[in-house]
Write a structure and sequence with these properties.
157 residues, mainly beta, four-stranded antiparallel β-sheet, globular
C-alpha cells in the first residue's frame, strides 16, 4: 500500500466591489514517489537554517581528592583577579584550575612562581600542578587572564 501526501487546493479570493478576483494557490512541493522516481521540479525558495548554539557545560570549581583540604578557591569568573593569600605550611600544594575561552591565563603565586596556560574556546581545559615548596612564607595568588577567559581555581594542601 502506498501513502501519498494530499495537498488541498485552495484559492485566495478578494471581493472588489461586486466582482470577485481569485488567484491560484502556490505550487505544492513535489512528493517523491517511493518506487524510485521523483519529480524534476526545483524549489524556488531555499530555507536558511542557523545552527543551534553550542551546548555549553557550566564551568565549575575543580574537584579535590579525599584527604586534602582547600586553602584557597575562586570562580568561576572572567578576567584578572587577586584571589588571596595561602598561609605557610609544610605540605605540598595542589593547584587545580579549569578554564575555557580563547586566550592565555596565568596563575601567579608571589613571590616567585608563574604558571602560564593556553585556554581554548568552547572547551574546558582542566589543569593540575603539584608544588612541593617546603616551609615557606605566605604566598599571594593572582590570576592574570583576558575577559574572554572564564576560569575557576582551587588550591589544596
Amino acid at each position: 500500500m502506498t501513502i501519498r501526501q494530499v495537498v488541498p487546493l485552495l484559492a485566495s479570493c478578494t471581493i472588489i466591489g461586486l466582482a470577485v478576483a481569485c488567484t491560484a494557490p502556490p505550487p505544492a512541493n513535489p512528493v517523491p514517489d517511493r518506487r524510485g522516481t521523483t519529480s524534476s521540479a526545483v524549489p524556488t525558495e531555499t530555507a536558511v537554517t542557523t545552527p543551534p548554539p553550542p551546548n555549553r557545560t557550566p564551568l565549575r570549581m575543580p574537584g579535590m581528592d579525599a584527604g586534602t583540604k582547600t586553602v584557597l578557591k575562586a570562580g568561576p569568573r572572567k578576567g584578572s583577579m587577586v584571589v588571596g593569600d595561602i598561609p605557610p605550611g609544610k605540605d605540598e600544594l595542589w593547584v587545580l584550575f579549569n578554564c575555557r575561552g580563547e586566550g592565555k591565563a596565568e596563575i601567579i603565586l608571589e613571590p616567585g612562581y608563574n604558571m602560564p596556560f593556553t585556554c581554548l574556546d568552547n572547551l574546558i581545559s582542566p589543569i593540575m600542578n603539584r608544588l612541593d615548596l617546603g616551609q615557606r612564607e605566605t604566598l599571594t595568588v593572582r590570576i592574570q587572564a583576558p575577559d574572554s577567559v572564564e576560569w575557576a581555581l582551587r588550591v589544596t594542601r
